[in-house]
């Protein structure tokens, strides 16, 4: 870079190049070293200080928030704005106001996440069972601590737990809360750490306290006697499976099956879902139901909507006519999140180490933790009582000569000499002398001192009692039991989740199809209509596509099975209930599109059956007839398409479904008529059989048509019958010509 002097003479400065050591070099570092130096500290921080709850039942974020509220006097005071609470909590938890407020929301009564909430909320705190019901901003809501929080902070100021500095060493915070009940199992708690996770279900407080008391008294206590199953804030019904619960209780891992609870409103023909599993939301359930309805798996439902309001959760499902509500709910339990599994993973930090434990082991660890809290509390009170006793004993010596004490104080020239002179004058130590010296002048009377000294005997008894407690494990256990009993009586509630003992969850559920009479119409071009008799009577003329005409009309029921045979030797299966009820004034459903026919494939015949009894008859141009048992088209799986439905060796003329043998008239292009009883045709087991020869046709002639024989159609029916098959048939006699002309016109 050049610069100029005052005389504009250019001066060139030297460019100094700075070489950075190691710049641009590729350093090979073992992956194990990278994991140890970079990843492991992060993983341990997430596991120990963020995602996994400790034996008191709280994660650090929960504990910091609740302790801040406790120190702010919100246990007994009035509610304050949530934004103020969040701001104060940042002194302990500097991870942003959004994360702190979200933690508060989950702990609140309004959000309905916890069986026993810790935050008494006012305002919109959202709902755990709905992802669309979002909580309001912290400036709009108010909160304080619930009364049960008194059990979380009981004697916290008596050195019951350790305290550590906060992140900037400006204040102290507890490492654990001295909870008087096993809160770790009272409320749901979940978290995802690095390489591990935790998911703890909630249990009824009364049952849990009773179980803990049983374990305090007897380490081999059977917890199944008192702890029947988990209990959830949202209620629902727990499917009791002893083996599954034993796995959860013993190992800390497993699953609990829980289903929604519903009411059937007969007057409105609808189902009201009022309680759902804690693992899902209203929106997820409704979306799944809609998906299944669109897929055709739930045809009994006409509408589903969310009617949740201030009174609580409510999902309404409108049913179609004739639907059995109980059977439909069985299907919904299997197809939707209305029945779900809570996957338990009781991973808890104990002394900074994550451990997956069963319930008995967790409660045993909690009992040990609570035992230490009680011992530390008693020791704190004992130390305080001994100190007070020591001071009162010094005061007692002053009582012997109050005038002497006053004289010593008055005659002492310097203030610093008062305590030493009192020590010498009465033979007391410095601490006792300081206590005496601080007594107000108005209290230097015999009455005041006698009242203080009266506490000495009581203090001595109290000290002896506390020393005995510290030496006796049984007495500490009794204190824990008494505290648990009081908590159970004061805060215990009835179970929210109902336990179902007799429930066969593996029953295969058949689809419930409304059964009622219908009229089925099928046109030559492949249009199908399903019309109820009432609608048919009230409707007008049948509507057809231009050039189309009615091919088949069948009276049946909504449960009937439909088989559509095509010109490509295939059959497509459907059910009458797969089609909506319609009217005569519409074209109907176009079967090739509805059933997804192959390209250029056309339907030729519709067979309607309820039981797959009878036979399918296929008539071919070469005069052969195939008689196939209808049961051959019945499938165990719900296959919608069957290939090789009939033979392709000769063009098909007609197809016909008969339930029992009947008489048919076969007509050839030569004008010959053959009257045949289908009993004379042997049935075949294979669907694509070529059939048997029935009508003998000469060269250049073929089978032209087939129709049902009507009694009296021929003047002399025996003329067209034959003893053996195949047969050529006979030409119409003069007596039958008029009748045949009428039939052709029809």
Quick take:
With 746 residues, the chain is of the alpha+beta class. The protein is built from 18 helices and 35 strands.
Give a written overview of the molecule.
- Helix content is 31%, strand content 22%.
- A hairpin with a 6-residue loop joins strand 6 and strand 7 (172-174).
- It is α+β, with helices and mostly antiparallel strands.
- Among the domains are: 52-176, Topoisomerase II, domain 5, CATH 3.90.199; 205-362, Gyrase A, domain 2; 366-491, Orthogonal Bundle (Topoisomerase, domain 3), CATH 1.10.268.
- It starts with a strand and ends with a helix.
The biggest beta sheet is recorded as:
4 strands, mixed
Per CATH, which architecture of one domain? Answer: 2-Layer Sandwich
Low-pLDDT runs: 1-7, 9-17
What is the typical, i.e. mean, pLDDT? 89
Question: Which structural category fits the helices and strands?
Answer: alpha+beta
The helical percent reads 25-40%
Q: How many individual helices?
A: 18
Q: What's the gyration radius in Å?
A: 45 Å
- What is the CATH third-level topology name of one domain? Gyrase A, domain 2
CATH class of one domain: Alpha Beta
Principal-axes geometry comes out as rod-shaped
């Amino acid at each position: 870079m050049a610069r100029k002097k005052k005389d504009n003479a250019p001066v060139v400065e030297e460019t100094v190049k700075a070489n950075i050591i190691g710049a641009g070099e590729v350093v090979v570092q073992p992956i194990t070293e990278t994991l140890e130096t970079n990843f492991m500290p992060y993983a341990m921080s997430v596991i120990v200080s963020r995602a996994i709850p400790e034996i008191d039942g709280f994660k650090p974020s929960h504990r910091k928030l609740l302790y801040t509220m406790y120190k702010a006097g919100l246990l007994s005071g009035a509610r304050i704005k949530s934004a103020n609470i969040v701001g104060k909590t940042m002194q302990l938890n500097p991870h942003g106001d959004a994360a702190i407020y979200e933690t508060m929301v989950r702990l609140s009564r309004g959000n309905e996440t916890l069986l026993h909430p810790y935050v008494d909320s006012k305002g919109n705190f959202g709902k755990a069972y709905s992802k669309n019901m979002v909580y309001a901003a912290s400036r709009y809501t108010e909160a304080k601590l619930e009364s049960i929080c008194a059990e979380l902070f009981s004697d916290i100021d008596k050195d019951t737990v350790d305290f550590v500095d906060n992140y900037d060493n400006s204040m102290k915070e507890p490492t654990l809360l001295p909870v008087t009940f096993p809160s770790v199992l009272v409320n749901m708690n979940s978290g995802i750490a690095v390489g591990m996770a935790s998911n703890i279900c909630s249990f009824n407080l009364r049952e849990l306290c009773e179980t803990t008391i049983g374990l305090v008294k007897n380490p081999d206590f059977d917890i199944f006697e008192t702890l029947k199953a988990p209990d959830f804030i949202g209620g629902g019904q727990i499917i009791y499976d002893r083996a599954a619960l034993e796995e959860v209780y013993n190992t800390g891992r497993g699953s609990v099956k829980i289903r929604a609870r519903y009411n059937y409103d007969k007057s409105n023909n609808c189902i009201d879902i009022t309680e759902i599993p804690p693992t899902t939301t209203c929106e997820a359930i409704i979306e799944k139901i809609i998906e299944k309805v669109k897929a055709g798996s739930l045809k009994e439902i006409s509408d589903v909507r969310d009617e949740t309001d201030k009174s609580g959760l409510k999902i309404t499902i409108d049913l179609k006519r004739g639907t059995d509500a109980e059977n439909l709910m069985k299907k919904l339990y299997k197809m939707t999140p209305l029945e779900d599994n809570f996957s338990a993973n009781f991973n808890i930090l104990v002394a900074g180490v994550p451990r997956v434990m069963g319930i008995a082991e967790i409660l045993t660890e909690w009992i040990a933790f609570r035992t230490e809290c009680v011992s530390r509390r008693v020791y704190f009170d004992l130390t305080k009582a001994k100190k007070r006793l020591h001071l009162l004993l010094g005061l007692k010596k002053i009582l012997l000569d109050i005038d002497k004490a006053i004289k010593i104080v008055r005659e002492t020239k310097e203030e610093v000499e008062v305590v030493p002179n009192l020590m010498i004058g009465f033979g007391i130590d410095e601490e006792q002398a300081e206590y005496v010296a601080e007594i107000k002048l108005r209290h230097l009377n015999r009455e005041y001192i006698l009242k203080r000294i009266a506490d000495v005997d009581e203090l001595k008894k109290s000290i002896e009692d506390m020393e005995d407690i510290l030496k006796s494990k049984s007495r500490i256990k009794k204190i824990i039991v008494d505290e648990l009993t009081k908590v159970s009586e004061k805060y215990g509630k009835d179970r929210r989740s109902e336990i179902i003992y007799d429930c066969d969850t593996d029953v295969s559920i058949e689809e419930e199809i409304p059964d009622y009479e219908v009229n089925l119409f099928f046109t030559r071009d492949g249009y199908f209509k399903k019309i109820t008799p009432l609608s048919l009577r009230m409707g007008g003329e049948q509507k057809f596509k231009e050039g189309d005409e009615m091919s088949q009309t069948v009276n049946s029921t909504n449960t009937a099975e439909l088989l559509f045979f095509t010109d490509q030797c295939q059959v497509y299966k459907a059910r009458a209930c797969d089609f909506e009820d319609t009217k005569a004034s519409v074209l109907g459903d176009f079967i090739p599109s509805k059933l997804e026919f192959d390209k250029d494939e056309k339907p030729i015949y519709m067979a309607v059956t309820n039981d797959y009894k009878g036979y399918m008859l296929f008539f071919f141009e070469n005069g052969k007839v195939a008689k196939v048992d209808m049961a051959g088209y019945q499938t165990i799986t719900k296959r919608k398409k069957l290939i090789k439905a009939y033979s392709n060796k000769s063009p098909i003329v007609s197809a016909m479904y008969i339930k029992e043998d009947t008489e048919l008239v076969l007509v050839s292009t030569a004008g010959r008529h053959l009257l045949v009883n289908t009993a004379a045709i042997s049935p075949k087991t294979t669907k694509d059989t070529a059939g048997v020869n029935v009508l003998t046709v000469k060269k250049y002639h073929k089978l032209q048509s087939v129709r049902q024989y009507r009694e009296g159609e021929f003047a002399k029916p025996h003329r067209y019958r034959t003893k053996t098959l195949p047969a050529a048939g006979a030409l119409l006699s003069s007596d039958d010509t008029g009748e045949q002309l009428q039939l052709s016109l029809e």
